[in-house]
Design goal:
It is built from twelve helices and eight strands. By secondary structure, it is of the alpha/beta class. The chain has one domain (2-366): Rossmann fold (3-Layer(aba) Sandwich), CATH 3.40.50.1110. The protein has a six-stranded mixed beta sheet. Strands 6-7 form a two-stranded antiparallel ribbon. The chain binds 2-acetamido-2-deoxy-beta-D-glucopyranose. 2-acetamido-2-deoxy-beta-D-glucopyranose is lined by residues 297, 300, 303-305, 310, 330-333.
Length: 381
């Protein structure tokens, strides 16, 4: 009896702090990026101009449009849930935002390259970094004159928070669509500078105090209905999973350069975790082994219409547009969770969930010694 009680007490005291507090070293998330992680940034800057202002965006999780390019959550939302944090508010949302557990600077259409005449991307990575600096300075000034406030992050969380960057895809698209470059030309012209700029952004965040910075690479665009439909492909341009070889090759070329840039930056920034996240590999495996993850469709869009890939540029998800001479209002498939792709470009809620689970699993981090779960008792997602 006595020893059993002792044992139980021992087990309880060992487990209690973990159960009671759900220990997590990351008090906040600061995110930078494009539509893949935009939780309302673009909407609050330029309202009523983009697809996710309309149904059926948001149908699976929020039950209404939530300004996210998804039927529900994005990967950054699942990360917040896993870390036990609320969904992070967009920096540009003036009413109802709570920033104590982070802020989201991502905006749809954002590119690494700054706004120029050849394409339209007003809230580029540079703008987002500047917004972050202003935000941080305002928070620190407020804390020093009023003490900490319950809707602002603590000064410390700028150091201990987790920083995530996911950007680059639009730089490809703008080069393909506006500059009319081929994947090969894109490789030769814009890509080397791109990876350097992202490395520079990491350096800037470090200078601002960030010590845990995760940079996601660009996913396999060549498997996406938009890239498969909008651009012409030679019959020899398809791999065994129906993805475009040349468009994926351009992305992989860039990702290799990003890897190299981050390993250079890592050497120059001591005492920090500068982490490359190879989401390309995770997402490509969705297309290679869909049934392993419960997906039934691969290169077809859930919300879309027409053609081999269920995608028509002039009649995109939620819009009314011409398809074979008839006007069609484009709705959602009945089972988004069995699709990888929601709207021809972006992932479904379910694909974002599985992606985030795989990321947290730790196998796709470089360096491989980095781990989130050893520093945070994550919540199931
Ligand atoms: C294409 O999208 C429509 C919604 O417009 C959906 O009902 C249909 O199931 C999708 N088709 C395929 C082949 O995925």
């Amino acid at each position: 009896m006595g020893s059993r009680f002792f044992l139980q007490a021992l087990v309880l005291t060992a487990l209690l702090p973990v159960i009671a507090y759900g220990k997590c070293d990351f008090p906040a998330i600061f995110n930078f990026g494009d539509s893949n992680s935009d939780t309302g940034g673009w909407h609050f800057a330029f309202p009523y101009q983009m697809l996710p202002d309309n149904a059926p965006y948001g149908r699976t999780f929020f039950g209404q449009p939530s300004y996210r390019y998804s039927d529900g959550r994005l990967s950054v939302d699942f990360l917040a849930q896993a870390l036990g944090l609320p969904f992070i508010s967009p920096f540009l949302q003036s009413v109802g935002s709570r920033f104590e557990q982070g802020a989201n600077f991502a905006a749809s259409g954002a590119s690494v390259r700054p706004t120029s005449t050849d394409f339209n991307a007003p809230i580029s990575l540079t703008v987002q970094l500047n917004q972050f600096k202003v935000f941080k300075q305002q928070v620190l000034d407020t804390i020093s004159s009023h003490g900490s406030l319950n809707y602002l992050p603590s000064a410390d969380s700028f150091k201990t928070g987790i920083y995530t960057i996911e950007i680059g895809g639009n730089d490809f698209d703008n080069a393909y669509r506006s500059l009319k470059l081929s994947p090969l030309q894109v490789k030769q012209t814009i890509l080397p500078k791109l990876a350097k700029s992202v490395g520079g952004a990491v350096q800037e965040l470090y200078n601002e105090g960030a010590r845990t910075i995760l940079v996601k690479d660009v996913g396999p665009q060549g498997c996406g209905p938009f890239w498969l439909t909008y651009f012409s492909h030679a019959p020899t341009d398809f791999d065994q999973h129906g993805c475009s070889i040349s468009y994926n090759d351009a992305v992989q070329f860039y990702n290799t350069q990003l890897r190299e840039q981050l390993s250079l930056v890592r050497k120059q920034l001591p005492g920090a975790d500068i982490v490359y996240v190879s989401q390309y590999d995770i997402i490509y495996d969705f297309f290679a082994n869909p049934s392993k993850y419960g997906f039934k469709a691969t290169t077809q869009s859930c919300c879309g219409v027409g053609g081999k890939y269920n995608f028509t540029w002039a009649a995109q998800c939620g819009l009314t547009g011409p398809v074979n001479g008839k006007s069609v209002t484009v709705g959602s498939c009945s089972d988004p969770a069995s699709y990888i792709i929601w709207d021809g470009i972006h992932l479904t809620d379910q694909a974002n969930r599985v992606l985030t689970q795989q990321i947290l699993g730790g196998k796709y981090f470089e360096p491989s010694t980095f781990s989130i779960t050893s520093r945070c008792q994550t919540q199931p997602i």
